[in-house]
Each structure stands twice: as structure tokens, then as C-alpha cells.
Design brief:
Blueprint: H1 3-14, H2 18-25, H3 29-37, H4 44-54, E1 74-77, H5 84-104, H6 127-140, H7 152-158, E2 162-166, E3 179-184, E4 193-197, H8 202-219, H9 227-242, H10 245-251, H11 258-268, H12 272-281, H13 287-299, H14 317-326, H15 331-338, H16 342-348
Parallel strand pairs: 2-4
Antiparallel strand pairs: 1-3, 3-4
Helix pairs in contact: 1-3, 1-5, 2-3, 6-9, 8-9, 12-13, 15-16
């Protein structure tokens, strides 16, 4: 393992330049550069000095992460303007999360209902095939063709998928602009890992999770080289999972108004824009009607701030495993064992909110709806 490169990875996690980290440690930038390049041996004394200056456990340098790049991760972004600093932080954070997730998978049995899900293996998948796959997964959870998914997070965790939160460190709120979620399930890994960027509205969060669920189902055991095709398939799958075709065909017509779409959003926890897109793809409305409704959304200022609140969901699985291994207050002890600072560990695996899953049929109770 190249210990010098591990310093580069630490810098990416801390969002520091080489000059800034050298200043924090109290060494010359040229010396830090030599350490990172492997020109100078990274001694135990240098490791202790670096870790003490950055509140990082020395065990960080006992671990390594695989040398993959952004092309090897399924990303969901809402802009192409992502800086190198943003990309470096997100990729390194996800690598550490993936490493920690695999370690936590060894925890004593956690009481989570397990559901087996099908994984796509055939090379060519049509939209009809994607509908069938989404329908099979809904059926595995006992959901009928007109029922909403009460909690996408819990659905994924019951399939063994580990979901971690990714938030911007050190108050750098703009660091994660453009990112929504990411996922990967490499061969030989005990499970898939998903990183979910925090701060999204509940409806957008649910769609992002369903999108990453699609990547796990569609692209873990099936090679699709074109990233645009992977994204299109995952996007279609997410719509089919959250708004089932039988319900859509029975409910959506060309004459539905935006207020009607608001009611569908309240019941199914999916954004108006996503419902409109889904309706057009199913041939339930024309392209002209889709364009008209989208224009109405823009005119009302709803493209980025839709009415109807959908509660965000909170992961449970990783925190349950963390507690099972390291006790009720796990972060200090787990920090050393897992080789990551307590602050980063708590930001990725926070204590869950009390939203263990709705029992009612509606994602957002109708009394919250304000037309």
C-alpha cells in the first residue's frame, strides 16, 4: 500500500490543498509533496503528526481503498458543472463509505426483514422489461399495482443495500452542489453501497434512492458501457417503481390539471415533474401536454420549489450495525476501529430519525395538501 497516496486521499476528504494541509501539519509543502509521491518514507512519527493535526485516527493509514474513478461509480447529478474539488471529495467519501460498509456487514445479525430481489442479467432490456422488473420487485414486497412505496429507504435496506448520508464538511455547503446520489456493487463485495447527498426534499430524495436502486438491480450483474443508457434505464426504473403503471393508466389522462398531479404526489411521494414525465413515457399524455404542464410549473415557480411536503427518509441499517459492534454511543470507539474521524463517521452514518416506515397507505397525508 502506498502510504503517501493515503495522504492525498486524506486531503481529498478534508477538502484541503497541499499547501493548506502542510500548514495544518506544520511542515514544508515540498516535504509533503515528497511524502505523497513516495519519495520520502512516511514514518510512524509522520503519521502520528499528520493524524494529530487533522483529528484523524492513525488506523486510517492501515486501510486502503480501491483505485477506481468516477467512471466506475453510478452517479446521479443534476448539473454537469462539477468541479475537480467536488469530485475528489465525493469519490473519496464514497470509497471510505464502501470500505466501512463492507466491514460493518460482519456485524452480528441485525433484525432487518430480508427480501430477495431479482438482478437483471440479459444484455438488452426494453422499457417493457424495465416495467416488469420494477413490478417483480414491488411484488416481492407485497405491493399491489395501485399502492405507493411507503419507504424507499427501508425497501432497499431490506434488500441488503447499505445507504449512507453524504453531507458537505466544515460548513462548505456548495461542495456538493450538483450531486444527488451514487452507488456501486463490485464483484466480491458483500453488498451494494449507496451514498445519498443530504438536504434534498423528500420527493427528490425518494426518486434519487429509487434511481440508485435501479442501478443496483440493472447494472450490478450486467455490463452497460454507455453511461447515458445506464442513467436512462435507472431513471425509467425509478418512475416505474414509485408510480406503478396500473395506477397511472387508470388515473392519468390528458385532461388532468396540476392540482390533480398534486394529489398524486401527495399519495405516492413523487414530484409533479416526475409524474408528468412518467405519464408521457407511458403514452398517457402527449408531448404537447407535457410541455404545457412543464411550462405551467415554471410559471408558478414550482420547477425548483413544488408544493406538497414529502417527509425525508432516514437510513437505519448501517447505524444498527454500528451500534451492534460498538455500543449505544458508537462513534468514538468505531472511529479507531474503522479508521475514520468521528465527525466524518457521524456525518455518514448519523443517528436515525424516528421514521421507521409509514404504516398508512399514503406517503404524505392528504391533510397536508394545500391547493
Amino acid at each position: 500500500m502506498n502510504l503517501g497516496h493515503r495522504i492525498v486521499e486524506l486531503r481529498n476528504l478534508l477538502v484541503l490543498t497541499q499547501k493548506e494541509l502542510a500548514s495544518v501539519i506544520g511542515i514544508a509543502q515540498s516535504y509533503l509533496s515528497d511524502l505523497e509521491r513516495g519519495r520520502v518514507e512516511l514514518t510512524p512519527a509522520a503519521i502520528h503528526r499528520t493524524c494529530a493535526a487533522t483529528a484523524t485516527p492513525t488506523s486510517f493509514f492501515q486501510y486502503s481503498t480501491p483505485p477506481y474513478t468516477a467512471d466506475d461509480i453510478n452517479f446521479r447529478t443534476h448539473t454537469r458543472n462539477v468541479s475537480a474539488k467536488q469530485q475528489d471529495f465525493v469519490i473519496q467519501a464514497f470509497k471510505e463509505i464502501e470500505r466501512i460498509s463492507a466491514m460493518l456487514a460482519q456485524a452480528p445479525v441485525v433484525r432487518v426483514k430480508r427480501v430477495g430481489i431479482p438482478l437483471a442479467e440479459h444484455a438488452d432490456l426494453s422499457d417493457h422489461d424495465l416495467e416488469l422488473l420494477a413490478g417483480d420487485i414491488r411484488a416481492a414486497y407485497g405491493l399491489s399495482g395501485d399502492a405507493p412505496v411507503p419507504n424507499v429507504t427501508r425497501m432497499m435496506e431490506q434488500a441488503g443495500i447499505a445507504i449512507a448520508s453524504i453531507s458537505a464538511p466544515f460548513g462548505n455547503d456548495r461542495l456538493l452542489e450538483g450531486h444527488c446520489g451514487m452507488s456501486r456493487w463490485p464483484a466480491g463485495s458483500p453488498r451494494a453501497s449507496v451514498g445519498l447527498v443530504t438536504g434534498m426534499t423528500g420527493d427528490r430524495q425518494r426518486f434519487t434512492l429509487a434511481h440508485e436502486f435501479g442501478h443496483v438491480v440493472l447494472h450490478s450483474r450486467r455490463s452497460v458501457s454507455d453511461p447515458k443508457q445506464r442513467q436512462r434505464e435507472a431513471e425509467y426504473f425509478a418512475g416505474a417503481l414509485l408510480l406503478p403503471r396500473p395506477y397511472a393508466q387508470h388515473t392519468i389522462t390528458e385532461s388532468l390539471t396540476l392540482h390533480d398531479y398534486l394529489r398524486i404526489k401527495a399519495e405516492f411521494g413523487i414530484s409533479i415533474q416526475a409524474i408528468i414525465t412518467r405519464a408521457q413515457r407511458l403514452g398517457l399524455i402527449t408531448w404537447n401536454r407535457q410541455h404545457s404542464l412543464t411550462l405551467q410549473l415554471s410559471t408558478r415557480g414550482w420547477r425548483h420549489n413544488e408544493p406538497v411536503h414529502v417527509d425525508p427518509e432516514s437510513p437505519l441499517l448501517l447505524h444498527s450495525e454500528l451500534v451492534a459492534l460498538h455500543g449505544a454511543h458508537p462513534y468514538p470507539a468505531a472511529s479507531s476501529a474503522l479508521g475514520i474521524s468521528p465527525a466524518l463517521l457521524q456525518s455518514w452514518i448519523p443517528e436515525p430519525n424516528n421514521d421507521s416506515g409509514r404504516k398508512d397507505s399514503e406517503v404524505t397525508p392528504m391533510q397536508r395538501l394545500r391547493l
